[in-house]
Amino acid sequence: MPKELTWLHISDIHFCPHTEWRDSLSRGELLDYLKTHFTTSEWPQPDLIFCTGDIAFGHSSKQPITEQYSVAEQFFDKLLDVCGSEGTSLPRERLFIVPGNHDVNRDAINGDAQSALKTWARDSWAHVGEINQRFNDKSTEFLDTIRRLNEYGEFIKRYLPHLSDPGQRHVYAKTFEINGISIGVFGFNSAWTCAGLEDDRNIWLAAEWQFNTAKKELQDSEVRIGLMHHPIDWLNQTERELTNRRVASDFDFWLHGHSHNAWVTPIQSHIVIAAGAVGAGSSDEFGVNLCKISLSDNTGAARLHAKKAGASGWTIMPIEEVAPAGLWRFDLPLRLRKSPNNPEAHQSNNKTNVPQDPAPFDYIARYLSSEFERALKSFSGQPRVWVEPILSRKAEIEKDAKLEPPVTAAELVNSIASIIIKAPPQYGLTCLAKYLAKLAWHKPSREFWLYLDAKLLRPNSASINTETERVLGPLNLSFQDIRRVVLDSWSPTEKEGPKLLIKIIEIFGETPIICMQRSDASMAERLSNIDLRRTFETYFLWTLPREVIRKIVSGYNEARQIGDDDAVTKRLVSDLEVLNLHRTPLNCLTLLKVSEFDFDESPVNRTEMLKRVLFLLFNTDGIPTYKSKPDLKDSEHVLGYFCELLIREGSYFFTQNRFLLEVQRFCKDSLIDLDTHIVFDVLYKNNILLMHGSQFYFRFSYWIFYFVAQRMHHNEAFAKYILSEMRYAQYPEIIEFYTGADRKRDDALQVIINDLGECYRTVKENCGFPENLDPYKHATWESSPETQEKMHEVITKGVMDSNLPAEIKDQFADRTYDPARPYDQTIANILTEHSVVCLMKLISAAARALRNSDYAAPETKRQLLTAIMRSWDQLSKIVLVIAPELAEAGHASYDNAKFFLVGDFGKNRNERLGAILSVIPYNIAAWHQDDLYSPKMGPLLFDQLDSPDLSSIARHELLVLLILQRPRNWSKHVENYIASVAKNAFYLNDVFELLRHEYRYGFALPDTLSEIERLIKMSLVKHLTGQKRPGVKSIAKTSFKKTLLPERPL
């Protein structure tokens, strides 16, 4: 006999006297429809019936809740008749029910006690232990709370005694066998603290008690099914997190109702199935599911049925792509799947403590390949393109980085060291992490690398172990099979980031770790002084060279032709430069998607780029013709509202049900007609939303920031909220998208000017550095010990004349002082008081706003750039102050921000100090260039360069930016600068060396290379002859060494 199981899943019947005239007809039509379906369909009658809550509508004076249950009994009798076979009803023992919020008698609720439960839910971590203890002990408080379900309990005791709970908790665990399958069903009670509208995200479940009981009672079952009325996201935060983990590890199928939305969420570890409503006021809310699984061929399917408006009765409910003809097919959870070499894979691993044999090689290989392919997925219909990553031991920002030989992924896989791989967000670290895990398994030694996502973990053993078990269990692997841990999405800037890494090291002992670290584009990172008790090798993931971009274009054209490979590559490289985007696979694929719309027209900024992507997704890609296409502006409007909620809450995970409820409520209040289901489907289908467990999240945070920026345009109060109290500084991308929408947000620019000016004045006043502090005035073309000593004296005098505390002045002046923690902490504390981190964040936000404000008033743009350059100058002085500490220890901290020396700065302290001082201007410009620069900024930058108010350090840093980015007419202004500085000046030498570096490594056309060559020679001739502005004739008369122009690599 095939090992198959079929069940009917219904929910939310709502036996209500007020709407009985309507609902009785709907229920009758459902019974008739099911009877016909079982007669004409190839599907058999169900083996089981599950009803996930809300049998009653609630206590009312017109019809007490006890009478509603009497009507329910009649309906269930008829349903059991319909689902029976050969004239015999399905036994009542095959009907399973759980309570819902409408099954509560609200007249029995103690208002004061309920208020306390709601208050506790806001600080759920602090009270979850007490809630579980009350549930276990059946305390006085618990018995008072559970009284609201007394009528439900009497109904169950009378009609379905096999589900009656003598413990009065209204939960149950049932095990039985059907068709050779050992089945375990646990009925959860999520209604015992429900009271009304305030339930959302405040519900207490006593999850630990209920899941522990379920695990104990169902441990010998092959198939484990959990029933609960509410979607998981209706629970409070602590209960929600635990439930998500335990569902993944303890159950194969998770059924719920409440949301009135039929949906199937297949996950590797389990399948979540939501039923629509049997009794509802809107056609979109109706829905029941018939499900069938086969343990013989590892497959399952849910047949969706609904009652649509205008229809005479119930019918199938097709959903484009996922459930054509209303049939949603899915693979069984991994734990249940058989393979030819492992026919008993579905059996429980809890039966014995003997370690299990590893799952077959091909099965784990398929799982790892599937995970890798999933990470590669981008927009719907786009080809999945993978190019070998470019890795290096040096950061791409370092001047000599390109001299370092690249490192291959295979080398990392064969290394036995613990490793940190750094890259900014959206560089492809997740794809790389899963690629490495896949490569490791294909080694002859077949190493299993455990992939963990830091976004989904908390820094405690329970969280980490639960996630580990969730991955290992379906693969039939044990803790001892783990050869390496890959921790993805880790960042030292996250509040609990360092604690999480320390905990993982503690749990996994000597197991090597590869940590994929999201890093800031600057070299400054928020990181506490923590002892990891382990040495990590550091590598950096680089952007893509032109030849690799060509490979992406070629692969893309094979699947979806845009144009000639050469033409598309040239346009793509140009657009990346114009939009100031890093050459990452994601950015390439996004722009290629935009090119499908109009290859001949480029977006002007990132805001426009994302708007074009959304236009394609909402208008041309895969929305069924029988469904109305949602208006893009309407969609952006409601998504802006939803993302506003996420930003205000600071929580970015949500279920589909919560998404639909929130946006539907907003549409109703705003009188907007929008099919929110299609909006969700478009986002999910195109991988803008990803799923983990039963929850969803935006794959990349910039989508949240984009929609929030749209919301700021639509809601003045929210715009003021973001712009007030410098909140925008926490999310620079929001201000970038906000200003980029119409490129004339003078209101925002004025706020930023005022905030940046105030922060600058605070830092300047409290630090009190001399206005004219510039050690580079005393530096010369060729550095010597004497000039370095003079520079140090200038810096020391500046510190002595500053407002820094006496202990810092003493420590700085003591050249032989051993820099230990007290010094580090003193610097950190004093600079915290001076709001340096705030200044750095404001610089970033201000630069992004300015870059996108083409049409703002010219004077406003000048004021903002002046404020930015003043802040650069102040930041340079701060780095000058910590330079000795960097030279001594290799790192220096302030305000929880940590600067590292990356690269070879010399063998001794004095060498390192000289090298650090010489590269500060370059680093200041390089850190901020991505925020500030676009080709359209040229005239404004030139205007600022000529400003008499610009300090000598900031002027030089601005010139460095011009050399690095080279806007139109850049060489003329570099020439003027060369003419303005002394022949033996450090500034002239720095320009000379930077031009040589760009000649060797920079991406430049022949005409640009000729200009760079001319300026290199002009700088050297000035140094040699002292001419103010050496011209073509002077350059031609000079004999240059062959090594003057470095050889450009192929």
CATH class of the largest domain: Alpha Beta
Unreliable stretches (pLDDT < 50, length at least 5) are: 339-361, 521-529, 815-834
End-to-end distance, in Å? 67 Å
CATH superfamily of the largest domain: Metallo-dependent phosphatases
Overall pLDDT confidence: 85
Molecular structure report:
There is one protein chain. This protein has 1050 residues and is α/β, with parallel strands linked by helices. The chain folds into 5 domains: 4-349, Purple Acid Phosphatase, chain A, domain 2, CATH 3.60.21; 380-542, 3-Layer(aba) Sandwich (Rossmann fold); 549-740, no CATH class; 746-957, no CATH class; 969-1050, no CATH class. It contains 36 helices and 24 strands. The strands form 5 sheets. Strands 1, 2, 3, 10, 11, 12 and 13 form a 7-stranded mixed beta sheet that branches. A 6-stranded mixed beta sheet has the order 4-5-6-7-9-8, with helices on one face.
Please outline the helices and strands:
Layout: E1 4-10, H1 20-40, E2 48-51, H2 65-83, E3 95-97, H3 111-122, H4 124-137, H5 140-146, H6 150-159, E4 172-178, E5 181-187, H7 207-218, E6 223-228, H8 237-250, E7 253-256, E8 263-266, E9 271-274, E10 288-294, E11 299-306, E12 315-316, E13 327-331, H9 361-376, E14 391-392, H10 409-414, E15 418-423, H11 429-441, E16 448-453, H12 461-475, E17 482-490, H13 497-508, E18 513-518, E19 524-526, E20 536-541, H14 546-559, H15 565-578, H16 585-597, H17 606-619, H18 632-649, H19 656-670, H20 676-685, E21 689-692, E22 695-698, H21 701-714, H22 716-723, H23 732-740, H24 746-767, H25 785-800, H26 806-813, H27 821-833, H28 836-851, H29 858-889, E23 891-894, E24 897-900, H30 909-932, H31 938-945, H32 952-965, H33 970-980, H34 986-1001, H35 1006-1025, H36 1032-1037
Parallel strand pairs: 1-2, 2-3, 5-6, 6-7, 7-9, 15-18, 15-20, 16-17, 17-18
Antiparallel strand pairs: 1-10, 4-5, 8-9, 10-11, 11-12, 11-13, 14-20, 19-24, 21-22, 23-24
Helix pairs in contact: 1-2, 2-6, 7-8, 8-12, 9-11, 14-15, 14-16, 16-17, 18-19, 18-21, 21-22, 21-23, 23-28, 24-28, 24-29, 28-29, 29-30, 29-31, 29-32, 30-32, 31-32, 32-34, 33-35, 34-35
